Amino acid sequence: MGKKVVILGGGVIGMFSAYYLSKAGHSVTVLDKQSIGKSSTGNAGMIVPSHVIPLAAPGMIAKGVRWMFNSKSPFYVKPRWSSELFSWGWNFYRSANQNHVDSSTSALRDISLLSKKLYQDLSSESNDFEYDEKGLLMLFQSEKVGHEEREAAQIASDLGLEVEIFDRSGLETLNYGPRTNASGAVLYKSDAHLQPNKLMAFLKSELDWMEVKFIEISNCRNIEMSQGKIVQVVTDTGTYQADEFVIAAGAWSKELAKLADESLKLLPGKGYSFTIPKMENAPSIPTILCEGKVAVTSFQDQIRFGGTMEITHVKDQKINTNRVRGIVDTINNFYPEMQIEIPKTKEIWMGYRPCSPTGLPCISRSTKYSNLVYATGHGMMGLSLGPATGFLVERILSEQDHALIPSFRLK
Ligand SMILES: Cc1cc2nc3c(=O)[nH]c(=O)nc-3n(C[C@H](O)[C@H](O)[C@H](O)COP(=O)(O)OP(=O)(O)OC[C@H]3O[C@@H](n4cnc5c(N)ncnc54)[C@H](O)[C@@H]3O)c2cc1C
C-alpha cells in the first residue's frame, strides 16, 4: 500500500526522492521555501564517479589552512565564534585520515555508478536535459598538483574506473578545443554531464504529470512529534500530516533536524557560477582546472564556469567578488586565448553545497523517529548522486534493503 509522504526541500535531492517514491506508488507532497526547482540549477552539471575520495582526506587540513590566507583561493573557512563551526571542524579533523578514505572509496564509487546508470535509463526515455558521456578532464599546471592528480587517478583505477593520463603533447591528441597552459591531465572516462537547469525543469514537469503536489511555504515553524514519530510539520502557510517525512533541504536540513530535536552536522559550502554563450573552440570535455578548482562545462549553446568553496552559514548570501575574480583568473590563466571578463553581480549564481564533516552524504532513517528519513549532505556531488539518493530513499521508505544503505547511515 502506498504511503503518504511529505518531502521538505525541492532541490535535486528532494525532486529525485519524489520521483522514485511516486513511481513506487507513494503519494508525495514536496514543500519548499522558494519556487520549486529553482535550487540546484546553477551547478556545473557534472556526474562524477571519478570523485571516490571524500572531502575529508589526509592533507585537506593543511591545504585549507594555507588557502585561508588567500582571498582568491578555491577553499575557505569563514572564521567565526560558533559552536556549530567548531563541532563541524573537529569532526572534519577526525575524519581526514587514510582509514576514512579507505573505508569510503568503494561506497562512493558504487553510489555514483548506480546514479549514472539511473541517469542513463532516464535519458534513454527522454533526454531533455542534455545528458552526455564525454568524461571529465582534470587539467593541471604544476608538477605538485600533477603528482596529486596522478595519485588520485591510481586510486580510481584500482577501483576499476577507466582513467587515462596525458602529458602536454598527449593533450594535443584529444581534440579538446581551446589552447591551454596545462602541463598535463587525467581523463576519467567514467564521468558524464548534463544541463542542470534543464534537468530541474524536466523533473518538475515529470512530477507534475505524476501528480506530485508542490507547495511553497514561507517558513517551517515547527515539527511535532509523539511516541517516537513525527506527527506533523507546521508552516506559515499550513500544517502537513503524513505517514513518512523526508528532510532533503540541502544546507538548511540542519535547521529542520533541530526542530525535530536531532543533531545533523552540516555546513554550507558556498560557491558561484556564471554562464555565457558558447564560444568557438569551447572545451569539448567537461573540465576541472585543478590549481583553482574551477569547473568548466560546455552545454549545447552555453558554457558554465563554477568554483570556490566557502564554508559558512546559511545567512551568508553575500557574493564575494574577490573569489569570483579568483575563478576568472584561473580560467584566463589556463586558457590564455579565452580572456573571460568578471561577470556582473546579477549574472552570478550562488549556491550552497550541503557539506558534512565526513564528506559523505546521509541517506538514512533518523535515529529518533521511525517515520523520518534524511537525504542530505551531498556536498559537491548532489547533482551527481541525485538519482541514486532518490532510489535509496524509496528503498528505505518501502522497507526494502539495499547493499548501499549501511554506508550512508546517520552518525
Ligand atoms: C558552484 C557549484 C558547482 C557545483 N557543481 C556540481 C556538479 O558539477 N556536480 C554535482 O553533483 N554537484 C555540484 N554542486 C553541488 C550541488 O549543487 C549540490 O550538492 C546540490 O544542489 C544539493 O542538492 P540538495 O537538493 O541537497 O540541496 P539544494 O539544491 O540546496 O536544495 C534544498 C532545497 O531546500 C529548500 N529549503 C530550505 N529550507 C527549507 C525549509 N525550511 N522547508 C522546506 N524547504 C526548504 C531550499 O529552498 C532548496 O530548494 C555544485 C555546487 C556549487 C555551489
Structural class: alpha/beta
Helical residues, percent: 25-40%
The CATH homologous superfamily of the largest domain is termed D-Amino Acid Oxidase, subunit A, domain 2
Number of domains: 2
CATH architecture descriptor name of the largest domain: 2-Layer Sandwich
Major sheet details: 9 strands, mixed
Instruction: Give the end-to-end Cα distance, rounded to a whole number of Å.
Output: 30 Å
What is the arithmetic mean of pLDDT? 94
Q: What is the CA-atom radius of gyration, in angstroms?
A: 21 Å
What overall geometry do the principal axes of the alpha carbons give? globular
CATH topology of the largest domain: D-Amino Acid Oxidase, Chain A, domain 2
Provide the list of bound ligands, each named once: flavin-adenine dinucleotide
Q: Counting H and I runs of at least 4 residues, what is the number of helices?
A: 10
Order of helices and strands: EHEEHEHHEHEHEEHEEEEEHEEEEHEEEH
Counted beta strands: 20
| Low-pLDDT regions | none
Beta-strand percentage range:
25-35%
CATH secondary-structure class of the largest domain: Alpha Beta
